[in-house]
Write a structure and sequence with these properties.
The structure is a single chain. The protein has 108 residues and is mainly alpha-helical. The protein has one domain. The chain contains four helices and no strands. The longest helix has 42 residues. It is elongated and about 50 Å long.
Length: 108
């Protein structure tokens, strides 16, 4: 068997196994981005707006974009490794809860 052929067959399988981890990481990064938006507004002293500004829309988009990522994560996860799936899902939920908690705490 040609070594190049073996490597090319293994690469897609490895990528498929890592896809749920990348999806979970993307969802967590979106939550971190949303949290940073709120904390940045607080640090900059941005007053509450009568109408939503661009940062509010970015927060909403970052949080809404997580739903399809989480659904894809659940669809592509290797359920034979339940503990790993649960830990990654819990990390996503904790990150989203942190973003919403900071938003509620800030009063924006």
């Amino acid at each position: 068997m040609n070594p190049q052929t073996a490597d090319s067959n293994e690469a897609p399988a490895t990528t498929r196994k890592r896809a749920p981890v990348y999806l979970a990481a993307a969802a967590i990064l979106l939550s971190a981005f949303a949290t940073a938006i709120v904390l940045g507004n607080m640090a900059a002293g941005v007053p509450r707006q009568a109408d939503e500004d661009a940062s509010a829309h970015l927060f909403q988009l970052a949080m809404a974009a997580q739903l399809p990522l989480i659904l894809l994560f659940l669809a592509t996860a290797d359920w034979r490794q339940r503990q790993r799936v649960i830990v990654l899902l819990a990390a996503q939920i904790a990150a989203a809860a942190t973003a919403f908690g900071v938003l509620a705490w800030s009063g924006y």
